[in-house]
Amino acid sequence: MDVLLIPGFWLDGASWAPVLGPLEAAGHRVHPLTLPGKDAVDADRSGIGLRDHVDAVVARIDALDGPVVLVGHSGGGAIIHAAADARPDRVARNVYVDSGPLGAGAVINDEIPTDGPDAPLPPWEFFEDADLTDLTDELRTQFRARAVPEPARVTSDPQRLHDERRFDVPVTVIACEFSGDQLREWVAAGNPFVAELGRVRDVDIVDLPTGHWPQFTRPGDLAEALVAAVGR
């Protein structure tokens, strides 16, 4: 299976390095993507919006033969959902790593501070305590050293969707900051936060209790969960 790995905010394709080996050992062809404007700290991010990131994923899908599995971490969840909306007949499964599908008209996070066309990694105080669980001082230093500013418009552009066949694409959610039971309760209660997920017809939820960046805090367990999800 071809597996496309979509990083979250402030990360490039290399951030997936800890999970590549197990996926490849399981026989999969793995494609970690670096999205437009995230190839270097000093890259030109002016004019790059959410749709540019979605289009980059769709272009990679189109360049491959056969079905693909999309894996999106954090803000990458919105991107893979839109890519599945664009190519519902090509996506065998969407895997959301501490993320979920973003509905039409919603934005990923327009509260992130921006600096012109850039949205740099904020101070750690910006994040909730649950985000930072298991992210040691050493890991925080490594993360900040490798962080690339996000294109500012990606944080605030409205999601654009048009094909309800996206709800037929099976989904795995790897739940980190909150438990699978909490997620199921929110869906059952009709919480707007998970309204789009609630419309997906086939949802599998896997608990991986840690903070928002399991590829750093629990890379082995994340790799195991991804291998299982892709294998489904």
Provide structural commentary.
Keywords: Hydrolase. The chain contains nine helices and eight strands. It has 232 residues and is of the alpha/beta class. It has a single domain (2-231), classed as Alpha/Beta hydrolase fold, catalytic domain (Rossmann fold, 3-Layer(aba) Sandwich), CATH 3.40.50.1820. The strands form two sheets. Strands 2-1-3-4-7-8 form a six-stranded parallel sheet, with helices on both faces. Strand 3 (68-73), helix 3 and strand 4 (91-97) form a beta-alpha-beta unit.
Q: Ranges with pLDDT <50 over ≥5 residues?
A: none
Structural class: alpha/beta
Under CATH, the topology can be stated as: Rossmann fold
- Content of β-strand: 15-25%
Strand order of the largest sheet: 2-1-3-4-7-8
Q: Give the count of structural domains.
A: 1
Figure out the total of helices.
9
**Rg over CA atoms:** 16 Å
Helix % is 25-40%
CATH class: Alpha Beta
Mean pLDDT: 97
CATH superfamily: Alpha/Beta hydrolase fold, catalytic domain
Quick one: biggest sheet? 6 strands, parallel
SS elements, strand count: 8
Q: Assign the CATH architecture.
A: 3-Layer(aba) Sandwich
The N- to C-terminal Cα distance equals 11 Å
Protein name: Alpha/beta hydrolase
InterPro entries: AB_hydrolase_1 (IPR000073), AB_hydrolase_fold (IPR029058), Sec-Metab_Biosynth_Hydrolase (IPR052897)
GO molecular function, one term: hydrolase activity
Pfam families: Abhydrolase_6 (PF12697)
Which structural traits does this protein have?
single chain; 232 residues; alpha/beta; Rossmann fold; 6-stranded parallel sheet; two-stranded antiparallel sheet; 8 strands
